[in-house]
Amino acid sequence: GKEELFMEVTIKYKPHDDKPSGPFIVNFPNPPPPSAFEEGEDCLEFSAYTHKNDSSSSSSSQSSKRRKVMIVGETPKIEYRGDNYSSDSLIDDVSRYVVGVYNKNDNTVQLYDSNAYIFQLRQNIKNYDDGVEELEDERDYGTQTSDLIRTFGSRKARTRHNVMMQNRLTHTSEEVMDKVNSSVENYSQGDVSQVDAINMLPPHNAKTKDVSAIYPLSSVIADYEIKDVEISEFKATIENSKSWNEAIKSSKYEKIIIDAVASQRASKKGKTPLFNDAQYKYLLYLSYMIKYYIYCRKTKVDESILPGSVWSCLKKKFRTDYGGGTMTPLAKNALLAHIIILSLHIHHYKIDASILADDLAMKTTLCIEAAKAVGCKRIDSASHDVKLTAPLSLPSLARR
């Protein structure tokens, strides 16, 4: 006989009871991996969530909350999430769905009333550790921030950060002293390098009782900075009274230079030479530094005002690539400190701040404050003279 193609089954229907117990019909955005439907650690497991009933709310509000359902299915690496209240769900679907489950033991099919919508699932890839060892950055937060701004920041952001760092105190006075003192030998023997942006003073010895040893000339102006300075014309002009008077009238040289020559001429009482070659080089280099300080304030700088070798040394030592190559406020302060210290060496550690201020086109009071910053003391309130004394006493650091 023919095989029976049909069989009788009993169908039972279970109406929907408004609880998020399922069954739920979902629509996957992409087919999940086959392992998601197999037993094991990659098995896809679903959970359902609904709003908690609020007894203080109205019955209509409670009913609305009960209808808001979210289901989440996840594996160790993938998460699927769907709900019935977001804009991309099919809440307004007019169809009704039932799910039939066949029980072969008693030959029955149980029909379960599903919610009147299909859950549209959204797929997310989880962040997980794949055995990659996390790299540790030994830099502190401040250093990381500074490096980030210097590398990726705009010119305005870098300038603003530079000003902020000026007002930040990270070391005690003793720590600063130890740091700069330890670099004296390297500074005097190495190549020309930019001045430390935090410590604007050159390497110095604060504890010595010899005033000439506080700021060694080799730490202020290294020998290789002045070795190519040509002094023949400058020396001839100074040694010849007539030529020197003409240079004074033409304002060829700064007043601090003229004052040094006048003092030396008076002490020599007509004897020549007034200075040795090394002294002439330091004197002329001071003039170059002052010119550099003045002209670097301008947008366009005529580099012909200084010899090429001098310009290169000063530019590398006191200028940075910060802000398009212009001199930063800290580099400018460092240059000013070096000018004052070199002037002190030339004038036997006492200078008239009003004369130097006039050369630098700045207020005398500001020049006096700058001199105090390198350790000078004002002799009396009636004059503008400042003097460097040993041992060195620097003003206490204060946040501006």
Structure at a glance:
This protein starts with 9 loop residues before the first strand and ends in a 12-residue tail after the last strand.
Helix content: 25-40%
Structural class label: alpha+beta
Nearest-integer average pLDDT: 76
Oligomer: single chain
Percentage beta strand: 5-15%
Shape: rod-shaped
Describe the secondary structure blueprint for this structure.
Elements: E1 10-14, E2 26-27, E3 45-50, H1 59-66, E4 69-74, E5 78-83, E6 98-103, E7 108-113, E8 119-120, E9 122-125, H2 141-152, H3 155-166, H4 173-181, H5 184-189, H6 217-220, H7 223-226, H8 232-239, H9 241-249, H10 255-268, H11 277-295, H12 308-318, H13 329-346, E10 350-352, H14 353-360, H15 364-373, E11 376-378, E12 385-388
Parallel strand pairs: 1-7, 2-8
Antiparallel strand pairs: 3-4, 4-5, 5-9, 6-7, 10-12, 11-12
Helix pairs in contact: 8-9, 11-13, 14-15
Keywords:
three-stranded mixed sheet, 15 helices, four-stranded antiparallel sheet, single chain, 13% strand, 12 strands, alpha+beta, 400 residues
